[in-house]
Design goal:
alpha+beta, Fumarylacetoacetate hydrolase, domain 2, five-stranded mixed sheet, 5 helices, twelve-stranded mixed sheet, globular, Vcp-like ATPase, Chain A, domain 2
C-alpha cells in the first residue's frame, strides 16, 4: 500500500491511500499543523501490514488535483546512516582516506534537523555561506510504533514503510566543520526532503530479506545524473533498526535514512567525472529523486534572499 498526506483543493489536510488509477482516497482528516494526519497515516500503514485496509471517509480524487505533503512532516527525530560502501569509499577517497575496518561492523549515523523537513514540490533555498550545494539520493524507513532494543529479525514489526529522502548538503560548510572532529552541523541543518508517499514494505521487492531491491535514480533539470540500487546496502534494514533502537526509544514517525547510494551525489560524480560535467546546484535547478515502488520526490532550488529560482528578480 502507498499512503500519502495531502492538501485538497479546498485547503483541507488528509491522509489517504493511493490507488492504481492515480487517485487518492482519504481515510482520515488532519489539522493544519506540520504533523496533521501523520499519526493516522502511520497507524494505517502498520494496520496494512496485518492485512487491514483503512476505511474511506470520502471519494477518491486524482492525485494531480491535490498537493502532496511529506508523509511525516514532523518526525520526532531523523537519523541518517552511512550504509552504502560505494558511496563511503568514494567520499573518503576524495579526502585521501582509505576505508576504516570498523565501518564494516558499526552501522553509524548522524542526527539531522527534524524542523527542516521539506515535502514534494517544496522549494529548497541555498543556505547562507555555501557555494557547494549537493543532493543525496537515499531511502528512509519510517518507524510506526514506539519501540526499543529491536532485534534485527523483528524490524518489519516496527517499520511503517519507506519514503524517498534527499539529504541536502552544503559540502564546503560540511568539509570545514568535520575537519574539527564534530558534525556535520550547518552543512546539513537547512533541509531534508521526504516523500512523495509512504510505501509499506510489501511494495518493495524482497523486503522480507531485509534488503529490498529498488532502482534509485536522480535527475537534475530532467537529465539523469545518478543511478543506484537499494539492495546494495552493506547493512540490512534489520541491522539499521537494531542499531538505532539499541539502549534507546524510537517513536512513531522517526526516520532512518539509508545514507547515499553509490554515485548518488555530486560530490562523488565530480570526483570521478569532473566538476565541469557535474557542477554544484544553484538557484533555478530542479532535483528529482526516484525510487522504484515509492515514486518521485521533486524539489526546485531557489535563492534564499529572494525565494526565486534565480539570484536576482527578473527585470
Amino acid at each position: 500500500m502507498r499512503l500519502a498526506r495531502y492538501v485538497d483543493a479546498g485547503g483541507s489536510v488528509w491522509a489517504g491511500a493511493l490507488g492504481p488509477d492515480d487517485t487518492v482516497t482519504p481515510f482520515a482528516r488532519g489539522d493544519a499543523s506540520p504533523a496533521g494526519g501523520q499519526a493516522e497515516l502511520l497507524a494505517a500503514a502498520m494496520a496494512a501490514t496485518a492485512g487491514r485496509t483503512p476505511g474511506p471517509v470520502g471519494e477518491p480524487v486524482p492525485v494531480a488535483s491535490v498537493r502532496l505533503l511529506a508523509p511525516v512532516g514532523a518526525p520526532p527525530s531523523i537519523r541518517d546512516f552511512y550504509a552504502f560502501e560505494a558511496h563511503v569509499a568514494t567520499a573518503r577517497a576524495t579526502r585521501g582516506l582509505d576505508m576504516q575496518p570498523d565501518w564494516y561492523e558499526l552501522p553509524v549515523f548522524y542526527f539531522t534537523n527534524p524542523a527542516a523537513v521539506r515535502g514534494p514540490g517544496d522549494d529548497v533555498a541555498v543556505p547562507a555561506g555555501t557555494a557547494a550545494l549537493d543532493y543525496e539520493l537515499e531511502v528512509a524507513a519510517v518507524i510506526g510504533v514506539e519501540c526499543a532494543d529491536v532485534a534485527a529479525d523483528d524490524w518489519l514489526g516496527v517499520v511503517a514503510g519507506f519514503t524517498v529522502m534527499n539529504d541536502w548538503s552544503a559540502r564546503d560548510l560540511q568539509r570545514r566543520e568535520m575537519a574539527l572532529g564534530l558534525g556535520p552541523a550547518k552543512g546539513k541543518d537547512f533541509a531534508t526532503s521526504l516523500g512523495p508517499v509512504l510505501a509499506t514494505p510489501d511494495e518493495l521487492d524482497g523486503a522480507a530479506t531485509g534488503r529490498p531491491r529498488a532502482a534509485m535514480v536522480a535527475r537534475v533539470d530532467g537529465n539523469e545524473w545518478s543511478r543506484g540500487e537499494l539492495g546494495d546496502l552493506h547493512f540490512s534494514w534489520g541491522d539499521l533498526v537494531a542499531a538505532a533502537s539499541r539502549s534507546t526509544v524510537l517513536r512513531p514517525g522517526d526516520a532512518l535514512g539509508s545514507g547515499t547510494v553509490g554515485t548518488g551525489c555530486i560530490l562523488e560524480l565530480a570526483a570521478v567525472h569532473g566538476a565541469d560535467r557535474y557542477p554544484w546546484l544553484v538557484p533555478g535547478r530542479v532535483v528529482e529523486l526516484e525510487v522504484e515502488g515509492i515514486g518521485v520526490l521533486r524539489n526546485p532550488v531557489v535563492d534564499r534572499a529572494t525565494g526565486r529560482p534565480h539570484e536576482s528578480p527578473p527585470a
